[in-house]
Amino acid sequence: MARPDTGKKFGWGAANTIAVALTLIPVLWIVSLSFKTPAGILDATFWPKQWTWSNYSGILQSSQFIRPLLNSIGIGLIATVIAVLLASMAAYAVARLDFPGKQVLIGMALLIAMFPAISLVTPMFNIERALGLFDTWPGLIIPYVAFGLPLGIYILSAFFREIPWELEKAAKMDGATPFQAFTRVIAPLAAPGMVTTAILVFLFCWNEFLFAISFTSTISARTAPAALAFFSGSSQFTSPTGPISAAAVVITIPIIIFVLFFQRRIVAGLTSGAVKG
Amino acid sequence: MADIVLDQVTKRFPDGALAVDKISLDIADGEFVILVGPSGCGKSTTLNMIAGLEDITEGELRIGGKVVNNMAPKDRDIAMVFQSYALYPHMTVRDNMGFALKLAKNPRSVVDEKVNEAARILDLTQHLERKPANLSGGQRQRVAMGRAIVRDPSAFLMDEPLSNLDAKLRVQMRTEVSRIQRRLGTTMVYVTHDQTEAMTLGDRVAVMRNGLLQQVGSPQELYDRPDNLFVAGFIGSPAMNFMPATIDDGTLRTPLGDAPLSGRLRQALEHANAPRELIIGIRPENFEDASLAGADAKQNGIGFRATIDVLESMGSDVYVYFTKEIERGVDAAELAELARDSGRADTGGSGDTVVARIDAATRIREGDDAELWVDLRSMHVFDPSTGRNIALGEKDSGAAPGGAAAGDAATPA
């Protein structure tokens, strides 16, 4: 009986190793590139022959990277706060109330989440230019909120559904207005759900590339992932591979820390409502 | 403190279902009233309407003389205890109990004082800083009570507050609820599906079925003088035995034996224009082991033989179960509903099993062909088509205290 078990374990172990290696090698490659000198980029070794911090010191002194990093943080945080606030209200209504058009609303939210973003880029480009939103923070915050909302509504309505309705009735009997019942009883209980939603929306904003590169033209609103594409070498003929790699590592680090800290929450958010009807 | 008046209160849900149909009930200041009935009878909906958690479709609700139909729950000055307790999981016991007072903007010292006082009454003082998740079922139940008590409201509403407790704790808490209500003297409306709770707790009990009020009265009154088949079958444990009976030539023919009609019953039957086919109801305690029944008592009932299927000894009494050959079963919607509610319909127990409660001194054993005796003075007679209790006679004439209405229904067999 022991033989098939060890065989199975070995098989799974090998499969896992291959899967992890496939996903990690590009990441490690970027890390390796970020430590190479410009001359060593094409030396065809995985391990840098000559280590250097110059790529990092270079980008961290350049406004071409620092400003987009601040944009990323600012736009991400503002979009997250707005999306979670709106999503919690919408999700509360979806979970608690029966109103005409509820199914349509849920369907629309799903539709938006599924919509190919590229098909929206051209019309939104024109709309944003006409409204003067092009290359501004709101120009990115608004679409990010729109795309973060469906996710938020889905996750939060699952959380709200698990809060017994009687708690709200009890709060009403205790003399709470509907607003007080929500802020003092329901919202604290849904706090884990809100944190989860916030994390997922923030990750979405942080990673977003298509809108970021389409709706910005200068570093006044360009986010970090988009800014990477505009790095230039020291001369027209040197490629900025080293600085790009270093910047990629820098913007990945917060995500890694985030995920390590909130792993459970993120999984809970992604699977909530999946098991319990 | 206040009285609560329901005047033709009706609840119709948006899907058209009629949950409560024109209920009128006067609840006096300081009175303890129980709403009881099987699930789906509209008792919880009625309570929610009093609380303000459900809109009233028609009719008028007055608390302390004021019409409160359109008042929000928080303006009605009533407290409610929920079946699930609905304690706020993120707050300590102290915060749970003080929540309403804080919302009402009482100063901190007042909140603390009232919470401490309620905790003392309910024996929760040492648990004040704990969260509900760390409390036992009985403690949670007491916190829920405490949350209602601290507010010193004009009325308490209780929605099956004890049904989540185990049997032993439920009996203890039942006494506790009764004690608290007496001590505070606050009007209380209490919803339950458990007839034992209803009988033991209330000053008055209101029995509901299908959104209609069946009968309101003191527990004893409901027990002795049920208005109809439903109340008769619902109140009392073990339940009343129902059997078909026929009037034939001045004789009442029952599956247990024949008995001549007494003058009084004959009058009542004539007055009610009763059909010849009737349903009779006999409580288990009206049976006795024939050898133990007194000689003079025997004159008021009939003796019969039956094979004992099951015998349950309760210590003070013995319950015996036997089956009587009945050609025509008792067929009434009310009884079918009661059977469904009690689960009898699911367990497959047949409707014609009779339960008798007899003296523990009996020598009857399981399987015996025993000689039993039934007292027919307290027999109830119902019209199968309407379910009304015929032997009660007219409503106003039946107000005599105590004593069974169907007294001397039959003369010795």
What structural class is derived from the secondary structure elements of chain A? mainly alpha
For the record, what CATH class of the largest domain in chain A applies? Answer: Mainly Alpha
Q: Which overall shape of chain A is indicated by the principal axes computed on the Cα atoms?
A: globular
Ranges of chain B where pLDDT stays below 50 over 5 or more residues in a row are: 394-413
Average pLDDT of chain A:
86
Task: Walk me through the structure.
- The complex is a heterodimer of chains A (277) and B (413).
- Chain A contains eleven helices and no strands.
- With 277 residues, chain A is mainly α.
- Chain A folds into two domains: 2-34; 60-276, MetI-like (MetI-like fold, Orthogonal Bundle).
- In chain A, helix 4 crosses helix 6 and helix 7 (165-173) packs across helix 8.
- The longest helix of chain A is centred in the first third of the chain and has 34 residues, at 63-96.
- The two termini of chain A are 39 Å apart.
- Chain B is an alpha+beta fold and 413 residues long.
- In chain B, 27% of the residues lie in helices and 29% in strands.
- In chain B, the strands form four sheets. In chain B, strands 6-7-8-3-9-10 form a six-stranded mixed β-sheet, with helices on both faces. In chain B, strands 13-12-11-14-20 form a five-stranded antiparallel β-sheet.
- In chain B, helix 5 links the parallel strand 7 and strand 8.
- In chain B, helix 2 (93-103) packs across helix 3 and helix 2 runs parallel beside helix 4 (137-149).
- The radius of gyration of chain B is 24 Å and the shape is elongated.
- In chain B, 44% of the residues are buried.
- The interface between A and B is medium-sized, with 17 and 23 residues.
